[in-house]
Amino acid sequence: MRVSLGFIILLVLVRIIGNKQLGQLNVFTYISGIVIGSMLGDIILHSDIDFWRSVLGIVLWVGLAIFVEFMALKSIKFRELFDGQPVILIKKGKIIYSALKKERLNVDDLTMMLRTNNAFSVADVDYAILEPNGDLSVLKKQASAKCLPTMVISEGRVITKNLKELGLTKSWLDDALNDLNIKSKEGILYAEIQKDGKLHVQHK
Length: 204
Fold this sequence. Notes:
By secondary structure, this protein is α+β, with helices and mostly antiparallel strands.
């Protein structure tokens, strides 16, 4: 009975939590899944544990996890705190050593991650970015590329740090938006500088 109920509860909770794949999970979500599995395992295997009290604990845990995910959807600052931010490890073929130290990586770790992306020489890499889920995104050098495709507006908010990284200013962005007859940033869902240097905009 405990096994059957535990299976049903797990199935329901997985459907409620959502369909994120393992590679898309951040550290908190990954550990949260382990905690839920451990709690369910305990109440299935140990008959001396109060079943329904334990189920209530699992439901409360899932509720808190969903609340955190909801806050991450509503607030960009909370999302950055919760999910983390991508970190540039290689820029224009040069390793950024300070970024490696901050992420507690060594050069051997970096070169191994590059090889898994079919990049066998640091000099051939234009940008290498460590994503919040731990994956390394690699853009190899291309003769036609003016810059790294970079998001500069997210849900109406200008990402000043990314503009600076590209050597651009808010005034340049305003002029580019005016050229597209866009007067307000609040209605923009996503905007990025493409590799040819042009601005791509998608409205909400």
